[in-house]
């Protein structure tokens, strides 16, 4: 998956997290679940960047 695609998915997840937090409050289970999804996307993106850095020149 390309970096642009990752960034788009991350931005969509971030916006959804903000929307849910405003609607339900920070402690709502829906907000916490979305936060976990966003964290997973961020970790996946970071892993992809790290993997590229590990490639031989």
Note down, in words, how this protein is organized.
With 57 residues, the chain is an all-alpha fold. The chain is 82% helix and 0% strand. α1 runs antiparallel to α2 (29-53). The longest helix has 25 residues, at 29-53. The mean pLDDT is 90.
Question: Which helices and strands appear, and what pairs or packs with what?
Answer:
Layout: H1 3-24, H2 29-53
Helix pairs in contact: 1-2
Percent of residues in beta strands: under 5%
Helix content: over 70%
Largest sheet: none
Mean pLDDT reading: 90
**Shape label:** elongated
Report low-confidence residues grouped into runs of 5 or more.
none
| Total E-strand runs | 0
List keywords for this structure.
2 helices; elongated; mainly alpha; 57 residues
Short description:
By secondary structure, this protein is an all-alpha fold. The protein has helices at 3-24, 29-53. The model has no long low-confidence stretch (mean pLDDT 90).
């Amino acid at each position: 998956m390309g970096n642009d695609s990752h960034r788009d998915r991350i931005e969509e997840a971030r916006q959804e997290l903000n929307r849910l937090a405003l609607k339900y409050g920070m402690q709502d289970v829906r907000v916490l679940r979305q936060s976990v999804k966003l964290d997973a996307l961020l970790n996946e993106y970071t892993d992809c960047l790290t993997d590229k850095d590990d490639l031989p020149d």
